[in-house]
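Here is my example:
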Amino acid sequence: MKTIRSALAKHKIIAISVISFFLLIVLIVIIIGGGTQDCSNGDSGGASGNWQWPFDGVKDPPQSLDGGQFGDSAASSSVRGHSFHDGFDWSFGLNGVHSGSTVKAVHDGTVTKVGYAAGLDTYVWVHSDDGYNEVYQETFSPSDVKVKQGDHVNAGDTIGTAHLNGHMHLGITKESDFGKAESKAFTNDGTWLDPVKTIEDGMKSGGGNSSNSSGSGGSGGGDWTQKGSQGYKNAQAIFDTTTKTDGFSGAGGAGAVGNGIGESGLRTDVVNAYGFGGLFQWSASRLSGSGGGHVRVGDKSTYTLENELATMQSELNGAYKKVKNSVGRATDVHTATYNWFIDYEGMAGNENQYGTQRDPGAQWAYREFGGANIKANDSLLGAAANGAAIGGAGSATEQDCDSSSTDAGSADGNIVDVAKSLLGYFHYGLVHGESNIGSVDHPNKNGVTDCSGFVWLALTKAGYKTPANMGWFTGSMAADAKGSHQWLQQIDPKDAKAGDIIICNIGNGAGSAGHTAILEEAWHGADTKIIQEGGTGGSGGVNESTVGPSFSYLFTNGETVLARPIKK
């Protein structure tokens, strides 16, 4: 390089002539025929450089709530009043995302703008050298942003902390003028690109830096379709255990493997931000409870193949016996895979998280391990009771839900009436204290409280026992319902009616690891109507919804307690 620079310094006239000649040749090529080589049609193709998902632990493809996906949809019309959504909403409770998750740069680039706009809140605009521009919005307060204008970021670098509005909106465009791009936010004219497709195409083209990559070695690793890899060995162990020890059909064993692929990529040592870990991403309450102690939450040394298979069998012969019927006796691979997803993973009401990996993974296992030759073994399957209770992987066990020996009194619809009188009240915030909402008799509509604070107010106004000055949270509420019964009494799901309380927790239930709401009707699972403050994907404020989308990952993976308030 130094020699070239010296030559150019000595022969400027020659250099300029040569450069001019080559520019002329390039121009001629473009005019004659080279212009057709740009295959861009406004889609996301052609992404180059490093790309990755904006949050750790994402399993391809990411999922969104209705209306949160990119493009035109009736759901977007109902949510926003216009059919086109110019980005992808990474909703809290899906894809491992929650309030407090770190937002990562999806592509290499330079921060060209950090600003505020109505509807966007504080946003970060990043320009990439290959012409892409990424905007991260709708989730930051000013203190949540960890970059400033002029900073260079690589894919995977921290942009900020997801915090507001129940989601982080990601937009990607090739329009470098922020104002022009935003003026087309409601127009599907090619200005805005599909973020999921853009990132996927970028990773496929060799610019992948995905946090979901299984890597190599460890307790999974490598391509699980390759014999000799640990992933392959894990797949065969799941298949052999379910078929040879538990009596599953070949289709049933393959369905279990397909879900292992979808949940963990067949890694035994994967633990996500919520503490879900292992082959089937068990939650904390499940591992330390119905799992029989084979795997202990917080102790990664126990996340071994042997321990996890023992945990799986303990559950299949305990609270999850229904899986032996719905999966173990299945003759169709897709049916077995889907039933494991619903009955073992506990994803009823969250079918949009099924993803694209489970079915092809199960079909591969069926072929690879000779599933067509394996019939269900009734002597090993046994009677296979209809098993598990409400919720999902971390749901209350049969023993937990046995509260029939205690009289919990009658449900009180008056609680619903009080709760409905508060619809539209309050901004969501993790603060407690009566002063933050005005007073019990005269609540301030613009006050601030969280889910348990709202339930406290509704029960207090309806004449029920509650701790002084909102002195509880979802963890202590569940503990009281199952134990001392100062304020709440756990009830059997079949007895839960309008006015009763649903509480879901992961671990101790602090912060985003817990949620509670008031039932608006008799309990019937994820579709049960509720009244709540906030809720997954919500914008804050007291609102009506249903259990599935509002509790999301808590309901499907946490411990669910249904409780009846205790009268004064």
